[in-house]
Specification:
Layout lengths: L2 E4 L7 H12 L4 E4 L4 E5 L4 H11 L8 E3 L3 H4 L7 H9 L5 E6 L15 E5 L4 H10 L3 E5 L12 H8 L5 E4 L9 E4 L6 E4 L10
Parallel strand pairs: 1-8, 2-8, 4-6, 5-9
Antiparallel strand pairs: 2-3, 3-7, 4-7, 5-6, 9-10
Helix pairs in contact: 1-5
Amino acid sequence: MAKYFDVHPESPQPRTISTVAASLRSGDLIAYPTDSCFALGCRLDNHDGLERIRSIRRLDERHHFTLMCVDFAQLGQFVQLDNHVFRAVKAATPGSYTFILPATKEVPRRLMHPRKKTVGVRIPDHAVTRALLAELGEPLLSSTLLLPGEEEPMTQGWEIKERLDHLLEAVVDSGDCGTEPTTVIDFSGGGAEIVRRGAGDTTRFE
């Protein structure tokens, strides 16, 4: 049965955030809010958590998982950025963007695209997510909480707990965080390719 945490959307309670971070360190899988939909998340080295996300969402090996990072310095440890890409990504973060980039050797191979050796990264602009990432001290392996056969991600914490109670260890709820997913920009080929138009403005990448 998943624990339910009601967190203030702008001033998240430190004790609650600490409890959720401890849950993640112990190997738990959680649902949590971002600035663009709810997401499923676990630690990078949580192999079981990764497989559970694949199972819940019915994802194949070509799916790009996202490393949710607290800041640009952390993001830079996991992806390769030349000067042009560095400036473009830095100017757009934090925000509702996911960037596909070549992974560094810090990223476990099972998280990379099997052929391209790329990974998705993002820096969210959401107080609860950022507080959790800061407390955890490492990125969260994440995927949008979009269930198979459904057109829109789940938006209500109580509904997530009700439907996924037996599949998760915790649900973090700070209110509705919308249904529009991130804008996805693929820089792995050198230039900016808009893979998905979402919550982030694409003007700067066109």
